[in-house]
Amino acid sequence: MRTLITPSIQTAFLLISASLSFSHASLAQDFPGDIPVLIEQSEVAGLLHRYEGPWEYFVGGGVSTFDCNQDRLPDLYLAGGENKASLFINRSQPGGELKFEKINNTPLSLERSIGSYPVDIDNDGILDLVVMRVGENQLFKGGPDCSFTASNIAWKFNGGNAWTTAFSASFEQGQRFPTLAIGNYVDRTAPGSPWGTCHPNELHRPAAGASAGASAGASAAASPEIPDYSDAQPLAPGYCALSMLFTDWNKSGTDALRVTNDRQYYRGGQEQMWRLDSGRYPRLFSTADGWEPLIIWGMGIAEADLNADGYPEYALTSMGDTKLQVLDLQQAIEENRPSYEDMAWDRGATAHRPYIGDDLKPSTGWHSQFEDLNNDASLDLFITKGNVENMNDFAGFDPDNLLLGRPDGSFSEQGLAAGIALDRRGRGASITDFNADGLLDIIVVNRRDNVSLFRNAGMASGQGARPGGNWLKLELQQSGANRHAIGARLSIKTGNQVQTRRLHVGGGHASGDAGFVHVGLGVAERATVRVQWPDGEWSAPFKLFANHHVIIERGKDTVIQWFPPVAKP
């Protein structure tokens, strides 16, 4: 993304910003709930890492949070741009300060990295890693104790030579291995680049897979299988994707592929959603299907079912105001049409300009993610912010947003009160519990600066931090294909309230996560949990006590509780 904004676009932005402006003080006064205390401690935690480089690295800057050594604490893989990417092992004490150890000279120590996503590709129960790059993308097979093996050749995956900026994965019906969607940005080799030269995206559907090393006398069925991604399909036209997400938008059990695109470089483009019927070539939803054109500087996608009706809402970040898309249920149910209404203004979620300072210029949004950071049983929305480089028509001091959710579905900006209003250029991010204390922490990759690491110390009070609401953390397991149950839904009932979560791979901005699913419970001391597994089958209800880590295995009548190791004195 280069620094070119026309006067007409600038004027439009300033008019939008003025019409939507409201003060941070008024927002703070109308939020009576808990505000998390987020303490930045990247350096004391041993996290020293910068995402840097020329134009190709104005975008990207992702992080993966996932357990690579089977201790159930999330480790880190950080993109570096022209610097080497870095793997950090989580050495945090449960409930204590955050600590990480950098592992040097691994196969993951790549230059030209944009971001990454963890997913178990070969169904061995150990997470693998997809690394997006300027140049050849790489698939890495995960092994014990954070070991990784480059597997493009073994899995017949053509990493290409594009500028890849988006990724998502889904287990399609009847497939043993995940379908991989690759989103590409500008085709730098095309005449006239970068204007109107967006690179096509890619869909890598797996072939049947081969047996891995079946010995004489051993059946092939008893041996592990090797994925085969030799048959790739173009997803054209491409409109400079910066995020994509497989999503079950209509509760049909079949994922579609949402793509958010950067209008800066495309010509005649828009936001996209691909229909992916099993065994058929992908096709775009069109206006005839109910898909209405939306043209934004699309940067990131976040999905959540905010009202627990089973239909997901989407937060789309952009330059200027964030979109919060809500499905038109009548059209969806009666005509199966993906028609959406933007509810960001009504819900207080536009996040269109900085919430502190006197700069009225529009914000630049990147990563977006729904999580419950104050454990009050209402989802919050976190957005990273940061000027592209030196775009004078956009805010220079543009701190990340923390939009805390209210029970009525609206949001209140509390980034300043929570402690995250730093002067940095945020890009990718992840929200997860690094020290197993039931409080969600935040890591942000910043362009041309060190990463930000925010430890959640509890809820703000007049005398420092105090404990907040109750919580549950849930992990799903099943045998055979799709061990981590990607595509499953969780239903969590406390009293008269129902919350839902869906397991997916993709979205955000160049950043993925895997591990326990976090659910805030508020004052509830127990919850009833059911799982709709990826094939549609529902589990029996499990009655669970709050403030536990719980593993649900498919087909089992009881759950497994995981207890973090006792912190060393």
UniProtKB/TrEMBL annotation:
InterPro entries: Crtac1, FG-GAP, Integrin_alpha_N, UnbV_ASPIC. The lineage of its organism: Bacteria, Pseudomonadati, Pseudomonadota, Gammaproteobacteria, Chromatiales. It holds the Pfam family UnbV_ASPIC. Keywords: Signal. This is ASPIC/UnbV domain-containing protein. Residues 1-28 form the signal peptide. It comes from the Bacteria. Residues 485-537 form the ASPIC/UnbV domain. The keyword S-adenosyl-L-methionine does not apply. It comes from Granulosicoccus antarcticus IMCC3135. Transmembrane segments: none annotated. The keyword Transport does not apply.
